[in-house]
Amino acid sequence: MSHTPIATDAEPARLPAADEAPSVMSATAGVPVDDAAPHSILDDDSPRSPRSPGEIFLVFTRLAMQGFGGVLPIAQRELVERERWLTREQFLELLAVAQVLPGPNVVNLSLMFGDRAFGLRGGLAALGGMLLAPWCVVLVLTVLYAHYAQHPIVAGALRGMGAVAAGLIFSTGLKLLPALRKNVLGAPAAYALAALMFGCIALLRVPLLWMLAGLGGAACVAAWRRLAP
């Protein structure tokens, strides 16, 4: 009995050649994974967002409790290096605005950061973290200081903390200097403005308000012209 071959439209499966690498397709873009740009989706240098106002409160409480003699260096370390909620450039921008506004610059920075993350709830969480626990500690230390203020050890400790605070602020400034390379005014102009501000305030004793109004105003106008369409 003869068997008649059955015609079929299906082509036989072809095994890939030895020099052909299988192309894995991306589930979202429909392109080979090798040709995709994973760094644009998940960049190691990109900041992450806080998960909740509660997390903001806890981080700012930890930040404030470490800030003996100055919170700014601790804020830069916690927000930029540890939590990675901000890049150095973003931290520098927030700090610049916080310096101009009235009030403590770190408190202003915490309010702006919390508001950017979760609106009013985030701002109140950051402010509460900055003030609540330190306020309780200050009450206790005030009572102790009233009794032991004249003790030589206490006086020496306060002078030592002042020196440490100055070193922390100086080191923070050095860490933030590389961020000026991406400034809208350009690196040479940004470095020149920073050096001029430092020289006028630290060496020539020019009042800070005058420098903010004069040099700060000129820098704002120049940046606005650069960004204007």
From TrEMBL:
Cellular-component GO terms for this entry: plasma membrane
Family: Belongs to the chromate ion transporter (CHR) (TC 2.A.51) family.
UniProt keyword Transmembrane present: yes
Bilayer topology: Multi-pass membrane protein
Predominant cellular place of this UniProt entry's protein: membrane
Protein name: Chromate transporter
Keywords: Cell membrane, Membrane, Transmembrane, Transmembrane helix
PANTHER family to which the protein is assigned, alphabetical: CHROMATE TRANSPORT PROTEIN-RELATED, CHROMATE TRANSPORTER
Bilayer-spanning residue ranges: 125-147, 153-177, 184-204
Pfam short name (any one): Chromate_transp
InterPro entries xref list: CHR_Transporter, Chromate_transpt
Source organism (scientific name): Scleromatobacter humisilvae
One GO MF term: chromate transmembrane transporter activity
Subcellular location: Cell membrane
